Amino acid sequence: MNNALRLADHPALAAACATSGPVIPLYVYDNTHDNAPGAASRWWLLQSLSKLDASLKKLGSGLVVRRGTVADVVMDVCTETGACGVYMTRGYSEHDKKTEEYLHDFAEKNGLTCKRYAGRLLLEPEQVVSKSGTPYSVFTPFWKQALSLIDNAVPLPVPQKIQAPVSWPATTSIGALGLEPKPASWAEPIAAEWQVGEEAAIERLDFFVDATMDEYQTARDIPGVDGTSKISPYLAFGEISPRQIWHKVSMHLGDATKSTAALAYLRELGWRDFSYHQLFYNPEMRIKPLKAKFLHFPWHEGTSPAVKAWQKGMTGFPIVDAGMRQLWQTGWMHNRVRMIVGSFLVKDLLWHWHEGETWFWDTLVDADIASNAASWQWVAGCGADASPYFRIFNPVTQGEKFDPAGAYIRSFVPELCDLPNEWIHKPFDAPLEVLAVAGITLGHTYPAPLVDRKKARASALAALASIKD
């Protein structure tokens, strides 16, 4: 049940229950590979597993938890229990594909049923291909094709009962997995921000669709308002399926594709599918640019005070600092601001997008292997259908456009609270008397700008010119 931590719309679980035999729900915590969850995700996982176990127990079942490689643990449990079949949700990374192949071989050699089911995406990679049978590398035609293929099938219900085995195999306690943050206080602000689990996912979706979605098309770009669904962590852990979201939106509107606001929202699910399809066909996407010429881009690499300042939200550019502090405090960042902070790292600072991908992987509660890598490659100009590298976001004008009254900045950069709106996006240009009244001393109470943006832009464009075909 890895990354499918729910009971509703769970094809693999439903198929297992339909055999009328006993079912052993199994979660394997494997932190031995590069896709192991980061710190914020481990905090979420700890809560999610506990919620799932409680839900299973209400149905007369429970969750068996083991630590180790997925293939080895599944084979061990099959051998220990005399299980006659393995039912699993499909993955898309190279690690997932190898695990699935290994389990299929094991099942075949031992006379077991081994079935793999969809459940993480709206459409599988093999379904959305061009007329020539090749995968799409540009999102717009991908999404046009996908819209013609997505149906509005009713999501599967929660099983009424899950038959328990006569004897349960040994299980590790969830607490023994070592998922707790250290120190524990690190996660307290995140815990105050989020409710975890399948029930919380449904509640958040219901609220968004009923109260917020109609304004999504415009509100989604305003970080100072609650204009997005914040459903991404629940999707990342499989506490809700994309099909459940699609169906809920369609039930609310009749035909979601005829509502511009709903279609703008569902398009984000399309981007998530697109990202996973890219990962499926490009297994090295987390480490290798999809545009080959960027292999020779002169990124900075290693460690740097500039990267540390970016991570801590101490760059001297308020919208960037607000975003990075929101990430640290809540485990999440507004999507518009993700683009701004990403552009700042890879273009203004010229640091490798790996630095951003790795930091987000560790600090986001919605860290998702495909979306994280695809989005960082997008902002760095080296991914599929990426934003051109020469399109460099100006953090001042972006802040003025999308946070004009500074509400978002004041929430996360409180030392700037008393600055007038005119200067809150550019305190480095404010008159000294204005800074004095606001209690700000640049370089002391708030950092001076980390870079001269005009020089930084020139350096970025020169770096781009150095790799042109």
From TrEMBL:
Molecular-function annotations in GO: deoxyribodipyrimidine photo-lyase activity
PANTHER family referenced in this protein's UniProt entry, alphabetically: CRYPTOCHROME, CRYPTOCHROME CIRCADIAN CLOCK 5 ISOFORM X1
Classification via Pfam families: DNA_photolyase, FAD_binding_7
PROSITE patterns xref list: DNA_PHOTOLYASES_1_1 (PS00394), PHR_CRY_ALPHA_BETA (PS51645)
Enzyme Commission number(s) of this protein: 4.1.99.3
Family matches, as SUPFAM superfamilies: Cryptochrome/photolyase FAD-binding domain, Cryptochrome/photolyase, N-terminal domain
Family matches, as Gene3D superfamilies: 1.25.40.80, DNA Cyclobutane Dipyrimidine Photolyase, subunit A, domain 3, HUPs
Keyword annotations: Chromophore, FAD, Flavoprotein, Lyase
Similarity annotation: Belongs to the DNA photolyase family.
Segments forming domain Photolyase/cryptochrome alpha/beta: 1-122
Superkingdom in the source lineage: Bacteria
Organism: Kordiimonas pumila
Cofactors demanded by this protein: FAD; (6R)-5,10-methylene-5,6,7,8-tetrahydrofolate
Protein name: Cryptochrome/photolyase family protein
